[in-house]
Amino acid sequence: MPIYDYRCNQCGRRVSVLWRTWAEIETKSPVCSRCGSHDLKRLVTRVAVLHSEDSHLENLADPSAFGDVDENDPKSLARMMRTMSRETGEDLGPEFGEVVDRLEAGQKPEDIEAALPDLGGEAGGSDLDMM
Ligand SMILES: [Zn+2]
Question: What pLDDT is stored for residue 129 in this prediction?
Fold first, then answer.
């Protein structure tokens, strides 16, 4: 599957668009994942093609695969987590969904951890396990 990078003329963000087919590139217009604008300019010839399970996994390990994740932006984090969950196909459990929902609502990760004390530790684990 071809990936092209675009620069959004509305918000200035660089977005990577994954196309399912080469024909889509010609027939559909890309959408900025941040502001929803269609006013995107294609950046020069960076094309990655995913064709095997291996390259798929490598792509996952590369943070840039998710676009620019802003760690200070809960919504950006939530989007990255959703992408990760979808890409891996793993069921990350109800707590994961809760965290993503809260991130999308704009809560800070610290606040979410405070609100969900079971997160990040073994269930019933002792304080000694905390780093
Ligand atoms: Zn934009």
Answer: 47
